[in-house]
Specification:
Elements (H helix, E strand, L loop, with lengths): L1 E6 L3 E7 L5 E8 L11 E2 L1 H19 L5 E5 L5 E3 L9 E2 L7 H10 L1 H9 L8 H11 L1 H5 L3 E3 L1 H10 L4 E2 H8 L8 H7 L11 E2 L4 E3 L12 E4 L3 H8 L8 E5 L3 E7 L11 E4 L6 E7 L3 H10 L7 H7 L8 E3 L19 E3 L7 H23 L5 E4 L6 H11 L3 E4 L4 H14 L5 H5 L1 E5 L5 H18 L5
Parallel strand pairs: 1-5, 5-12, 9-10, 13-19
Antiparallel strand pairs: 1-2, 2-3, 4-7, 6-8, 11-12, 13-14, 14-16, 15-16, 17-18, 20-21
Length: 473
């Protein structure tokens, strides 16, 4: 039996899998987001660490000791810890917007483009480099008392095992060199060379430690494998491993990603280039900020919940009676397939006849258009898997299939992050597994009769976006 732990933004999950990849048990605990000031989002690190031991204890007490535990978690943000691995400050979330000014400065001065040429990654307010730069200016004492500026899964690993380490998936983005190490040039461009001591050692595959933390149901000495973080982990868990294949995670963010064997740092800067934990393989990722959070917002505005989405989509015809949406509702703007901290949402085509159902359908369609925009930028040419909370809605999935004009492959298990990090751990530990039984498909959603209508709608979406962007500033 194997356990994968996925430390998400608001939920921590532990999922137990049998030797054939079948899910045998799971446990989840919610964690809170803290908003100390407008535009700022943080998390209590101690609460997050407690959530990990809570879900592990629950699963182990029911199904017994696992062969190993594999850890994945939310990416980006900044998680500071002291020399003993204890949190030295609240974690700054990837959703945080305080470093928007830093990103604007880097864009105007050419730093962002120069960084993209180093490692194929754009910067946005919630990226580790931008947050680290902001704290270096405005809260240097927090960095002075820290020994590590790491990532969510890394602080969990050190808490459980005492091992200070990271893998290339998270580190690719802010300071990586695409060869598995840190780039002195990236540190120089961001003005953070004097903080290089805060970066944890990178392990070529995944860091592997042994449980040392006392007081848990997990046996001392159990192997703990860390990484990759949630985007590559979900790709592994969905069987997305061949160049050109991709996936869409319809979650809080809309994470669109495509496998490549040749990272490209030329062209217009956009998206992320992430190490996958497999040598010679990267993800061209476009993690847009326009996911289920945008739908949740409009549902709150009309006094409905997600349970009402199927009926509302059935009530409004494709095209939403002329209502169109740019779903950029995140207060920190957008980061894929373009970066603009000032990006804002917009409804058009409203009339006195517009219904609540039209508003919901327009948002669902707008998010699907954003997915097409991202996947085109990422270079999708092969099959497409889909996962995340939004994938639980067959009605919304049909909108995605029609807008994207391609079949959608549903993995057998909804917990693809936890599954994927276990699959990746097999490779890190040199263990064999049956890829088909672990990452095969459960169902295929084919495009329907509205493909032509949505093709026209997508062209209008792009024109709408081009017209709106000058207004954001």
């Amino acid at each position: 039996m194997y356990v994968g732990v996925d430390v998400g933004t608001s939920v921590t999950k532990a999922v137990a899998f049998g030797p054939d990849g079948a899910q045998v048990d799971s446990e989840s605990v919610q964690t809170k987001l803290i908003h100390p000031a407008p535009g700022q989002t943080e998390q209590d690190v101690d609460e997050v660490l407690r959530s990990v031991t809570t879900v592990l204890d629950a699963v182990v007490s029911r199904v017994g000791q696992p062969e190993f535990v594999a850890i994945t978690g939310q990416g980006d943000g900044l998680w500071l810890s002291d020399v003993d691995g204890r949190p030295s400050r609240a974690a700054v979330s990837w959703m945080d917007g305080r470093a928007a000014g830093t990103v604007r400065e880097w864009t105007a001065s050419g730093v962002e483009e120069a960084l993209f040429r180093v490692n194929g990654n754009i910067q946005f307010p919630g990226s580790p480099a931008a947050i680290l730069s902001y704290l270096d200016r405005h809260e240097p004492s927090a960095l002075d008392r820290s020994a590590t500026a790491g990532y969510c899964k890394d602080i969990v690993l050190q808490h459980l095992t005492g091992l200070r380490a990271t893998d290339a998936s998270d580190t690719t983005m802010p300071f990586g060199d695409l060869r598995g190490g840190y780039s002195a040039r990236a540190l120089e461009l961001t003005g953070l060379g004097h903080r290089a001591n805060l970066l944890a050692p990178i392990h070529a595959r995944q860091p592997v430690g042994e449980l040392r933390l006392a007081g848990t149901a997990l046996a001392r000495g159990t192997p703990i494998v860390s990484g990759p973080y949630d985007l590559p982990a979900c790709a592994h868990g969905s069987g997305v491993v061949s160049p050109g294949d991709g996936m869409v995670i319809i979650g809080t963010t809309l994470a669109c990603q495509v496998i490549t064997d040749s990272p490209d740092t030329s062209g217009r800067p956009s998206g992320l280039t992430l190490a996958t934990g497999v040598p010679g393989s990267w993800l061209r990722a476009m993690p847009a900020m326009v996911g289920t959070a945008s739908l949740d917002w409009v549902l709150r505005m009309i006094g409905q919940t997600t349970s009402a989405v199927p009926a509302l989509l059935a009530e409004s015809r494709p095209g939403a009676d002329g209502v169109a949406v740019l779903p950029y509702f995140s207060p920190s703007g957008e980061r894929a397939p373009f970066v603009d901290p000032s990006a804002r949402g917009q409804f058009t085509g409203l009339t006195l006849r517009t219904s609540r159902a039209d508003l919901v359908r327009a948002v669902c369609e707008g998010i699907a258009y954003a997915a097409r925009h991202c996947l085109e930028a990422a270079g999708l040419t092969g099959s497409l898997a889909v996962a995340g909370g939004g994938a639980r809605s067959p009605e919304w999935l049909q909108v995605f299939a029609d807008v994207l004009d391609r079949p959608l492959r549903l993995p057998r298990c909804s917990e693809v992050g936890a599954r994927g990090v276990v699959v990746n751990a097999f490779g890190a530990l040199g263990l064999e597994h049956d890829a088909e039984s672990w990452t095969g498909s459960e169902q295929i959603i084919e495009p329907g009769q509205d493909v032509a209508r949505y093709r026209e709608g997508y062209e209008r979406y792009l024109a709408h976006l081009a017209a709106a962007r000058p207004l954001w500033t």
